[in-house]
TrEMBL record:
It comes from Deinococcus oregonensis. Pfam families: Acetyltransf_1. Keywords: Acyltransferase, Transferase. Residues 4-164 form the N-acetyltransferase domain. Its EC number is 2.3.1.-. This is GNAT family N-acetyltransferase.
Length: 342
């Protein structure tokens, strides 16, 4: 068995690290610049973050022979100074050969140095090694999440089931506007209003840790200035009088033609009236138009993810024909407060 050298990621490692990540997580692709951008954001916001790569022995030069990637980070939307997120990826052909174990030893040392209280990661339930790997290291399974995909190559989407809901909301004066349209119209205080809307609708989204407020700085950099954000597909539901009552967003990675939905949410006073359904309808329309414009040879998908207990949104996705992947499980490891790690 080959030995593995674990070291901090270098500036010229990011493309190789992204290739490893995308090979291990093909439905969640990243490019090298996108991974590096996330690291710079974490540092700029003052959060703790580290990224390690694993190389086969004999490939000591930067960017050569990278077979694994391990990342520790802090989630601005579920922030606690001593609780961390973990991302771990190993090339499929090297899995089961000790790469993940070598990366984890390096990351565990960093967690001890930070006096971490916990670390949490996601792993698909159908992965042949993940549950055994995590269980051996003391992780405990928790909340389940579903990634769902809708093929955008279908010749026709039957909108008949959604027409009455759209017509009813239209009659009430509700309309859907895009970020691009709002910018062109010169909407006053646009970034602040968008931040306020997202802050309101995200409060009740099911998640593995309690939600914490997103600062305006984080919202502006992580959402509005995200290179993958599609302004024509950042949609706002607007009620009569200009009140914003819901939102949905689309992003696209440099590494894939697939489209990824961000947060779809509705203000509490308007929930249960079909606003999320109409937003999803508009998102699907925009996504289909974008997919058609790419003239891709293979299938292009619209992807979304939801907690298994987010029953209303899962039901909406099912109505549109989204197909669920095997669930991803949130695994958590708790440390003793006085002596992190064991």
């Amino acid at each position: 068995m080959s030995g593995w050298v674990v070291r901090p990621v270098g500036d010229t490692d990011w493309d190789a690290a992204a290739e490893v990540w995308t090979a291990a997580h093909p439905h969640d692709p990243f490019s090298g610049p996108e991974l590096q951008h996330q690291t710079l954001q974490q540092t700029g916001w003052g959060y703790r973050h580290t990224a390690l790569v694993a190389q086969a022995e004999g490939h000591a030069e930067v960017g050569s022979g990278v077979v694994g990637l391990g990342i520790l980070f802090q989630n601005p939307g579920m922030y606690h100074p001593q609780r961390f997120g973990l991302e771990l990826a190993v090339r499929p052909e090297q899995q089961g050969q000790g790469v993940g174990a070598a990366l984890w030893r390096g990351l565990l040392g960093q967690l001890r140095g930070w006096q971490a209280l916990s670390v949490r990661t996601l792993a698909r339930e159908d992965h042949p090694l993940a549950s055994h790997f995590l269980t051996r290291r003391g992780f405990v399974p928790g909340k389940r999440f579903f990634t769902s995909a809708l093929s955008l190559n279908r010749a026709h989407l039957d909108e008949t089931p959604f027409v009455p809901t759209e017509a009813r909301l239209t009659a009430l004066g509700v309309r859907v506007r895009s970020l691009a349209e709002l910018r062109e119209a010169g909407t006053p205080d646009l970034p602040r209003r968008l931040h306020a809307l997202m802050s309101e609708v995200r409060q009740d989204v099911p998640r593995s840790e309690p939600a914490t407020p997103l600062t305006f700085e984080v919202f502006e950099e992580a959402v509005l200035n995200d290179p993958g954000l599609l302004p024509g597909a950042y949609l706002i539901a607007e009620a009569p009088g200009g009140q914003w009552i819901g939102q949905s967003t689309l992003f696209r990675s440099e590494a894939s033609l697939d489209l990824l939905t961000g947060l779809t949410g509705v203000t509490r006073d308007w929930r249960g009236q079909g606003v999320a359904t109409v937003l999803k309808l508009h998102i699907v329309r925009v996504a289909r138009a974008l997919a058609a414009a790419t003239e891709a040879e293979g299938e292009v998908f619209l992807r979304t993810d939801n907690a298994s207990d987010n029953v209303p949104m899962l039901a909406i996705n099912d109505r549109f024909g989204f197909v669920r992947d095997p669930a991803s499980i949130s695994w958590g490891l708790e440390f003793e407060p006085s002596v992190p790690g064991v």
